[in-house]
Amino acid sequence: MKLITNNFDGLGPKDYTTSLEGPRGVVVHRRLNSPVEMQATLVSSVPGFIVPAAGARLQLIRNDGTKLFTGYLENSAEYEYLGWTVTGPAYRYKLIAFSDELTLDRKALPVKTPVVGRTAGAALRSITEEIFPGEFDTTKVDDVATLASWEVDPQKTWSELAGEIAMQTRAAYRVLDGEILLKAIPVALHEISEDNPGLCPTELKVRRVNRIVNDLTVVGAVEPQSYVKDWFCADGFSLRFDLSQVPFTRRNRVLLDEEFRGTCLDPVRWELRGDVNAVSVNGGKLQIQCDGEDGSTVVQLAEKLELGGALVLQHGQVKFTAVSDGIFGGLYTSSVCTSNCLAGFRVSPGNGASAIQGIINGGAVGPVMPTTAEHQYAMTTRLYASEIYRSNEVFHSSVHDVGRGGEAIQADVRVVLEVREMDPGNPGTSTTIVLYDGVLYNSPECCTYALFDGGSLHCDVTFTRILRPVDAEVRSAIPGEDYRTRLPGALSEGAECSVSEAPALQFFSAFVPAANEKIVVTYRGCGRAAAHINDPASISTTKRGNDNGIIGRVCEIVFPSPRTSVDCANAALAFLDDSVREGWTGEYKILSDFLPDAVDIFPGDAVDVSAATRRAQFRAIVREVQIQVRDLAHDRAEYKVRFADEEAEPIALALRTAPQNSIPSLDSIPIPELRLPISSLSAAEVVNITSTSVSIDTGVSLPPGFGIEARRSDAAWGFENDRNLLGRFGTRVIELPRFSRIQTYFVRLYDNSNPPNYSAFSTVIHIDYPL
What we know:
The protein is mainly β. The chain folds into 5 domains: about 1-100, Phage tail proteins - horseshoe like beta roll fold (Roll); about 105-165; about 190-210 and about 580-645, Elongation Factor Tu (Ef-tu), domain 3 (Beta Barrel); about 255-470, Jelly Rolls (Sandwich), CATH 2.60.120; about 685-770, Immunoglobulin-like (Sandwich). Helices cover about 5% and strands about 50% of the residues. The strands form 8 sheets. It has a 16-stranded antiparallel beta sheet that branches. Strands 1, 2, 3, 4, 5, 6, 7, 8, 14, 15, 42, 43, 44 and 45 form a 14-stranded mixed beta sheet that branches. Strands 16, 36, 37, 40, 41, 46, 49, 50, 52 and 53 form a 10-stranded mixed beta sheet that branches. Helix 2 runs antiparallel to helix 3. The N and C termini lie far apart (about 90 Å).
């Protein structure tokens, strides 16, 4: 066994084996989904001895060429003076090195759009290529499973993100000799038996762990809950309108900010297909000069976009240099072609110039804006989805390898296509036209975004931005006119109003609503996500006398983070898959000569343990491996392996005790029954308001036995309580009494089961109109 070090001083790799402090001078410590650490101790009093410097590359190699460790010295060696010898002073040098991902951890990740609908392997390859292109071999990175949605935190290191990806998909990653591996657990299988040669019975330690939990309450983050629509009538001078509920809000952020710097497109951020010579980057502009048919040249975003909550896509300021034909800012349901275009801007020839028109579901819609030479055109798409998240998270256990959750969430999306024309010669003037303002029903949960899909496009584009503003939709209508969408957000971004947690809608002074202008604000209320799940079979088994058999726990899932109550329920079910049985932990020591099947052992491998004298027969997952070198000449090392099954230590779930101030009343978290969920009335609209009544179209045609229940407050749902009941209805359109200027109604759908099953969340209709 050899220790090879390269100080990158021009002298090349050097053999430091003879300088190791005895055969025990090297220890390698492997942990599941973490960088590998190697400690080595050198002793030398030889003149001219070169101490390995910070950043030096270290390799521990067997005589047959197998590499046990490759990595880098993070910091300078620690010195310890040993005394004076005939050749001069002697020192001991302690080296601490980490595996190859240290070079990746030192790179900063740029702000990146969330990963949507990608496999774990694709996500890992993407972030690797983004920060260190071409440096690592990723051929052993398996797809493993699909990530529903994953936010890339640029403040974390590559190894932290790789650990997240692996944990979220119940996989193991490691980096060795410039090669990255990602595989589903178990990566390999080893047999451990008391009868194995070389295994001393005293070196095999197993312990039964009783951590049974059969009644679990999981508390998640703040989630979107009730579907709220607040209706106001302006008086001509008021700027502030108080909302009926505290709105659910996410941190406003820029998902993409492309200024087209440099001399080429970022290959990690963008995909260029077709004629590569037709697209160039120069002087902060994307220059497009392509001639062909539909789809002949395409620049699309590498990541898909989730059509959830609010999104603003600014496709940039476009200057046409010749008559053009193609699609700008297209959102596509699958491959990029006109027939798959969900929404975008159609540019087509007309009267010797180009014209811009909206395109929805593959067809041209709305008015046509003719273009003028030398003018610039800012095309913007605004999206407002009825659901904030478009898929449930996935939670894994040893029982359900494919995981629990991951279902798509149906939603409708309002699309607003807007074009602003600017004359650089007269910057004080501009013209804005809304080409389309409508709702796409049952929209896909994610889509492909193409900056342009060129047939014959000749233009310059100055920037492209994707923003996630406040998740609220504001619309208004002047008497006698149709409703138009108003932009909430920052005044500097051209917004007309803001929605805050005050809770309030605040118009900016330049956009005072006119007298009798009708305003409707659509948003989601908020509340703490939580779920209470138990295992009746386990409870029945653990009953003893007066003990009811319930073994409960209240906790938070740290990762993967449950965003909604449905996620909390799936996380609880995944945890209970393993927690209703006793678990096993253990460790064993064995010399490398007697390793099972004579192969190396890594965290993420499985071990089948058979110890008849201890009544132990189980499969566990290796969590840590410590390799202590014993004999360098004969490649002999002692392996200390720690293992545990998922009944004792979950792999794909990280839990912690929930803070007291985050725990809702446990009585308010019902144990769900295994019945089909009932959809919420998210499409409900007010159709008429009088001084004594309000008519509401609930947006659903009721099947036999179904009904609508309306109440004055969001409580006491069910036939057994009428204390705040306004009525139960069997028709789509319902009429409710109005008693004052300000009135709030809560409605839910219920089915024909016994007892009835209700919508998970209420729809809130709030009216603030003069009588």
